[in-house]
Each structure stands twice: as structure tokens, then as C-alpha cells.
Amino acid sequence: MTESPVSNFPQPSGVRPPGLRSTLPAWGWGLLAVAVARALLLPCFELVPQEAYYAFYAQHPALSYFDHPPLLAWMLALSLRLFGHHALAVRAVPFLLTLGTQLAFVPLARRFVEGDVGRAVLLLATTGAVTLLSVVALPDAPLVLFWTLALVALASALFDGKALAWPLAGLFMGLAFDAKYTGAALWAGVPLFLLLSLPHRRLLRTPGPFLALAVAQLVALPVYVWNAQHGWASFFFQTAGRAQAASGLGVRNMLGLVCTQAVLLLPPLFLALLALCSRATRALVHRALEPGELFLAVFCLPLLLGGLVLSALLLVKANWLLPAYVSGVLLVARHSGPRLLRWNAAFSAGLHLLLLVELLLYPVVLRTDDTWVGWKALASSVEARLSPGEFVFSADDYKTTAELLFYSGAEAYGRNVLGERALQYDYAGFEPERLLGRDALFIDSAPLDPSGEQLPLAPPERLLRAFRRVETEAPVRLLLRGRPVRSFRVFRCFGYLGPPGR
Question: pTM score, two decimals?
Fold first, then answer.
């Protein structure tokens, strides 16, 4: 008798204890409780620059965008139209999408974690990753939702033989790509699973998998059309542009990635996943994974390992690996017991308490523009300083401009005023000719001294080349309960000459 292909893996543990069942199981009440807690966080802090930037997307409808595909922008546009121009209309989108992700996760848990669905659901729900997806409007929220739904449909097609599940899987795979380019990993995962799973390899001779991939390409057409119309700008930015940013071999970014993932998953779950991934990789090499384990591994391991390898060469952002944790958590839940959930829940409580203190009291001042503090006050200060007919602009990547556009009624522009590349601002109808001869305020967020005491006063050289005259004004200093937390240099610019070099 041959050895079982999964003999080196413990079998799923945990059986639901007998007893009366209420309409909502105990884990359902737990899921509801953490959802309510996250909902209470939504109005507690201002939009971070990424959210304001995606709101700018939403105010300029397009088939796709320079940095990302369009799905989040389309959803934000609908929400802002229905509920008005305020932060809660932005935050409601990721919250509802991530709630949908957790509900879509339930049928996956029922399939792959027999007997203890609730433990798997709560293991995912209590992570910092789900909090991030719930309370900050990032493209990862629709990505992870449609990634999860795609896994549900693919599992139904592969393990239940449901023919109609193939085009449905294609729809969800296409929508995942329309949310973020990481969704393309689903397209690679389907043939990879079919090639590695001997019982399912025969499906390569059937139309189902190819129908799914074809539907995914149809759904992705808006992204292809926009790129074709704009010189494939987004594809080049996300491939060649990222490659050009590579700084050579190093461990700093890799260590940073590992640490951020440990925070997002929480240390107990992260360490358990690392151990299991190591064992699963060895089993995968020896073709010792049964189809269910293989399915979960194929949609987890390549993304995790790919991100780890890339982090040795360039900065891999913390949220890039989030889709891998859908099947990753299921892998861990299959081979762990209640103790892991208890430990992770304890870490989760501690992490979220620290997060709440930072959000409300801001004891640790972040020396970066990637913060939620001070944007409304900056917008008010800028509006008060603007004279009739003046515009305002900034020259960071997108952050200050996006926040001013969201929180003020000012006419705000990006660094393309100075003839520099400005991401999506370059594709939103910017016409420098309309600004010629006008005066402006330049808001410089580069200095990180929150007190503003050591801010250099000389105007940047690039300003002097774009305007007839530039004067230094008093900086904007932002206080929180009497404590300085942000500062911005301000320059009044007279007579715009147009982008230097044109």
C-alpha cells in the first residue's frame, strides 16, 4: 500500500461542540463585534494621502489610471456621488468591501477547514491586515474581495465539477486585476494548479479553464484600452519603472517586509504561516500535497516567495502580499488549534489598543507625509492665504496636492507645474497654458522639522525658473493640543512663466 500524499501533514483539528445553535453562531457574533469596532474607527482620523489621491481618481473618471487599475476609483466615485464629498463616503467603500471579503471567506473555510469554520474565520478577522483593509481606502480592498470570490468559484469548478463556476471565476479574476495588477497572479495560479495536480490535469483538455481566463481578459479590457491609448504608461511604470528603482542586493528592505508582515498578520499567525510554508514548499517539490492543500499553496506560496525575493532588490510595500493571506490563513487553520487563535487574538487586542491611542492622541509624531494629522488645518490655512485668482501647488509625488484638493476648494496642482512628472496629475487634463501669468502659492512639505524652527528660507531653484518672482512667506505650523506636529514652507510666486524647459 502506497503512503498517503499528505502523511507528513497533520489533519485538520477541532470539532464543533454539540449544543443548541442560535441563529448566529458564536464566531458570527465575534465577527460582528470586530466589524463594529472597526466601523467606529472610520471617522476618527483624516484621510491619509493615498486615500485623497484615489478620491482625486474618482473625480476624474477614466477607463484606468497611471498608477493603478480603475476599480477602486469607480467605487469611490459612486460613493461620493451618493453620500457627498466627505471622508466617510471614502472610508465606507473599503469597510464594506472588506466585510464582503470576510463573508466570502466563510465558504472557503467550510470547504478547507472541516469542523471548525469559526476558528478560521476569526483567525483572519482579527488580523491587522483586515483592519488596514477595512479603514483605509486602498486598491487592495477590492483586490482581496475579488481574489477571495475567485478562489470560491475556482474551488467549486475544480472540486465540485460545476461548469458554470468557470466563467464566474473568470469574472472575479478579471475584477481582481481591475482592482490591482497583483490580481494577475490568479491567472497564473490556475494553469499552475492544473499542471501540478495529477487528478485535475485532465481539465487542461476541457474548455472550462480557458473560458475562465478568456472572461478574465474581457473584464480587464478597460485597463488594456487605457494603456493602449497612453503608450502603455501604467504597464511600463509598474514593470520597467519598478526595475529602475531597484537599489541592488540588500537585506534592509527584506527585513522591513518581514517585520511589516508580522505586524499585519500578528506574530503568532505569521510565525505559524512561515513554518507551514516551509513544510508545504518541501512537500510541493516532492509532489506530496493532496489537491486541497495544493490549491491553497498555489495561491499563497508564489506571491509570498516572489515578494520576499523582490524585497532583496527593491522596496516591496507591506500591502502587496495581502491576497496571499486568504489561502495562507486557511493553510494555517487546517493545522492549528484554538491555542493559536487565542494567542493571535491577544496580540490583536494589544496592537489595536496601541493603534487607537496613536490615532486619537498621536503620541508618536510621524516624520513623513504619510500621516492622517494636519491636512484639514493645512487646507484651511492655504484657503486663508490665497488671493483671488491664485492657484496652489506642491511638488511631492502626489500627497499634499491630493489632500488640498480633497479638503479645500482651492485650485490645486502637482509638480507638473514645474515641468516634472506628476503621476496621474499628468493625465487629468493639466494645461499649463491656462495658468500663464497667474500668481500662486507653493506649499513645500519636504522639511520634517515639526516645529518649523530650522526650515530653510531660500526659495527652491526650480521655483525661480518657473515664475518671474518668488517671495518667502511665514511657514504653516500645525499644533495638536499645543504641540507642534507638522510644518510646511510657503512661497508666494508671481507671474507663472510655464514649465521650465518647454
Answer: 0.91
